[in-house]
Amino acid sequence: MSIVVRDVREHELDSVLALNNAAGPAILPLDAARLRYFHERAEYFRIAERDGQMAGFMVGFGSASDHDSSNFRWFRERHPRFFYIDRIVVASRRRGGGVGRAFYADAQSYAELRYPQIACEVFLEGGADPALLFHGSFGFHEVGQHVMPETGLRAAMLMKPLCSYEWVRETYGEALPRVPWILQPRRVAAPMPELSTGTHP
Question: Start and end of every N-acetyltransferase domain (predicted)?
Answer without folding.
Answer: 3-164
